């Protein structure tokens, strides 16, 4: 069979074997294998075991050494390096690229057996967050996360240096907290970087030799050799994911935004290809849904959610009441009559909201609490601000779902960071022709969830309705990019004042704590719409779409018109996130803007006064001019501005702990 199928390779092998014979190579055994992909012969491979532990000089000048095989009669057969390499080659070549986790688990398990150690952990490097995470770890019940540069593994991820530490507790870089939490005692460590294309992509760590001795140089060399396979698996997986995401994102967003055919029936609820990777999103489980449904909301909560002073600061992600936000968010859809109007299955809506929550990260500001608060703000604008009367039901449907998903999977790093750091997310977005890095990502995840068969909230929409709602959701989320703030404001000004906006008194800069004048009345800042302007023309598509963008942005930065406790809560959270980004930029040797520099931290009140005076006042004045039914934004902003002035005048201690 070999002669028939692999004759070219056998002829090549005969030549090599003959050459080895001339060099008097004596082997206990050898394996000769043909390598093929899809039936096409690509190469041939030979693995041999020399009788003596000597190096073999290969044709390319490299030297390969093998330890002598332990006889079965002396002790039980154990895994050795050639056996391991053969096993890994077979596994890597036969496993689908989507099964990379299984391959890496097998690699690390084999390394643990080869090195005869108690534990083996693989930390994946996340350059975007500046962290390492133990995605593959033996004997660990939960993953370990650490900042790059902290702990033994973090130091290796930063420096690329191999660390062989015989006594972990004697090394000041070792983090003893993990042992305290788990009850485990770390004695010896061997930690090496795993590189691919010259870049550190992971860190492998062996813990505690079974015989109590330190790790040897042979262990170090074995681990370094095997790390080659790990690095290639990671590279191939990332390349595959990048290419898949690039193709899907470009096609999906183009088709949905620019009039591609969209269908969502009981049998086919997705415009996407049916072979989209299932791992792209994690749909909330039945157990999760039942847990949210079982939450008993208090009468006070139900009343507060419909009024203007809901205490969002009490529902921080660390609060035991945080999960209450899921049933509370359901109330908005019920109060607006959306479920009845579009025959939305209630269970599907529960699943969509819970799944969205699953995909918000635990970052200081752009988390699920923020998503809920923006949706709550939209509800206030639609009802209290009476803009509901300007839109049809489909517009309101799109606005509400856009609020739920508008920052989904935000990592606490803004568009400027992604662009400067050239993260895969920014490269993907730029390759697809867009510039709003995060907003395109939020759109993609929103569409992944909303078109999933288990989340069929749009199953009863007609095809024209379905096409429109997806287009609107995309346009609304893309409008939240602060980089488009001036563009959207200019469009509204051009409609209101085609001959140019009349000049208004200039705004004074933020006063210093030592020279604090009383603020002038906000009366001069009150909206003064041009004569004859009574609001948008509901029959004008441009007017309606612009109005939707304006109210979405009004909800997105609504912390400045919320009651002061909520306003202050969000101010602290956003600055905490800014400074965390600045810390990461410094770690990656990227230029840090003063706003993100913890070392240049201003008083919290001063930062908020600046934002309100130079951004919020002008924007909300424009909104109240364009949408006259909204008449409470500027007055609320005025109250918070004065409150921040009082805080600043009190010369309070700087709050720079975030």
Short descriptors:
658 residues, 6-stranded antiparallel β-sheet, two-stranded antiparallel sheet, 23 helices, 10% strand, elongated, disordered C terminus
Brief sketch in words of this structure:
The protein is α+β, with helices and mostly antiparallel strands. It has helices at residues 2-5, 7-22, 81-94, 100-115, 151-159, 177-182, 217-257, 286-293, 299-304, 325-335, 338-342, 346-358, 368-383, 393-405, 415-421, 424-431, 437-450, 463-478, 485-496, 541-556, 564-587, 604-626, 633-649, and strands spanning 27-37, 40-50, 56-57, 63-64, 117-126, 131-137, 145-147, 163-165, 189-196, 199-209. 48% of the residues lie in helices and 10% in strands.
Overall description:
This protein has 658 residues and is α+β, with helices and mostly antiparallel strands. The protein is built from 23 helices and ten strands. It has helices spanning 2-5, 7-22, 81-94, 100-115, 151-159, 177-182, 217-257, 286-293, 299-304, 325-335, 338-342, 346-358, 368-383, 393-405, 415-421, 424-431, 437-450, 463-478, 485-496, 541-556, 564-587, 604-626, 633-649, and strands spanning 27-37, 40-50, 56-57, 63-64, 117-126, 131-137, 145-147, 163-165, 189-196, 199-209. The strands form three sheets. It has a six-stranded antiparallel β-sheet, sandwiched between helices. A two-stranded antiparallel sheet has the order 1-2. A hairpin with a 5-residue loop joins strand 3 and strand 4.
């Amino acid at each position: 069979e070999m002669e028939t199928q692999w004759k070219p390779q056998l002829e090549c092998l005969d030549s090599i074997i003959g050459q080895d014979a001339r060099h008097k190579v004596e082997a206990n055994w050898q394996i000769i294998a043909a390598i093929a992909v899809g039936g096409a012969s690509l190469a041939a491979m030979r693995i041999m075991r020399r009788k003596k532990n000597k190096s073999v000089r290969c044709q390319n000048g490299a030297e390969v050494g093998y330890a002598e095989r332990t006889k079965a009669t002396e002790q039980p057969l154990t895994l050795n390096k050639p056996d391991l390499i053969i096993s890994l080659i077979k596994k890597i070549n036969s496993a689908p690229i989507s099964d990379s986790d299984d391959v890496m688990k097998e690699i690390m398990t084999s390394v643990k057996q080869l090195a005869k150690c108690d534990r083996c952990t693989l930390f994946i490097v996340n350059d975007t967050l500046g962290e390492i995470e133990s995605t593959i770890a033996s004997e660990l019940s939960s993953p370990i996360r650490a900042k790059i540069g902290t702990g033994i593994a973090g130091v290796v991820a930063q420096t690329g240096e191999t660390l062989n530490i015989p006594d972990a507790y004697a090394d000041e870089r070792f983090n003893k907290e993990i042992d305290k939490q788990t009850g485990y005692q770390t004695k010896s460590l061997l930690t090496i970087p795993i590189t691919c294309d010259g870049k550190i992509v992971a860190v492998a760590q062996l813990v505690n030799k079974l015989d109590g001795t330190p790790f040897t140089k042979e262990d170090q060399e074995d681990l370094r050799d095997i790390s080659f396979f790990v690095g290639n698996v990671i590279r191939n997986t990332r390349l595959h994911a990048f290419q898949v995401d690039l193709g899907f994102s470009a096609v999906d967003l183009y088709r949905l935004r620019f009039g591609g055919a969209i269908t969502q029936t009981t049998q086919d609820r997705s415009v996407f290809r049916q072979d989209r990777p299932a791992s792209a999103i994690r749909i909330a489980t039945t157990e999760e849904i039942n847990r949210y449904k079982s939450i008993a909301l208090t009468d006070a909560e139900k009343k507060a959610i419909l009024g203007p002073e809901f205490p969002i600061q009490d529902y921080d992600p660390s609060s035991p009441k945080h999960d209450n936000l899921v049933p509370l968010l359901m109330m908005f859809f019920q109060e607006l009559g959306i479920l009845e109007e579009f025959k939305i299955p209630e269970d599907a809506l529960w699943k969509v909201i819970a799944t969205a929550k699953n995909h918000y990260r635990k970052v200081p500001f752009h988390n699920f609490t923020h998503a809920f608060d923006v949706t709550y703000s939209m509800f206030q604008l639609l009802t209290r601000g009476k803009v509901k009367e300007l839109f049809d039901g489909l517009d309101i449907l799109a606005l509400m779902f856009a609020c739920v998903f508008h920052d989904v999977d935000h990592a606490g790093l803004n568009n400027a960071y992604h662009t400067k750091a050239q993260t895969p997310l920014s490269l993907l977005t730029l390759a697809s022709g867009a510039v709003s890095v995060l907003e395109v990502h939020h759109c993609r995840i929103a569409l992944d969830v909303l078109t999933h068969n288990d989340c069929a909230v749009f199953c009863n929409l007609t095809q024209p309705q379905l096409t429109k709602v997806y287009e609107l959701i995309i346009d609304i989320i893309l409008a939240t990019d602060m980089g488009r703030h001036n563009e959207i404001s200019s469009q509204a000004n051009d409609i209101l004042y085609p001959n140019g906006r009349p000049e208004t008194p200039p705004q004074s800069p933020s006063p210093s704590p030592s020279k604090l004048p009383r603020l002038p009345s906000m009366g001069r800042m009150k909206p003064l719409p041009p004569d004859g302007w009574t609001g948008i023309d509901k029959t004008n598509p441009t007017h309606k779409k612009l109005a939707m963008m304006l109210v979405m942005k009004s909800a997105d930065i609504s912390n400045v018109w919320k009651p002061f406790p909520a306003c202050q809560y969000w101010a602290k959270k956003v600055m905490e996130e800014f400074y965390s980004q600045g810390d990461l930029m410094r770690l990656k040797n990227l230029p840090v803007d003063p706003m993100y520099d913890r070392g240049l931290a201003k008083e919290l009140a001063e930062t908020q006064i600046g934002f309100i005076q130079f951004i919020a006042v002008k924007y909300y004045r424009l909104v109240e001019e364009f949408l006259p039914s909204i008449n409470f934004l500027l007055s609320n902003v005025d109250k918070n501005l004065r409150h921040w002035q009082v805080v600043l005048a009190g010369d309070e201690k700087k709050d720079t702990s975030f």
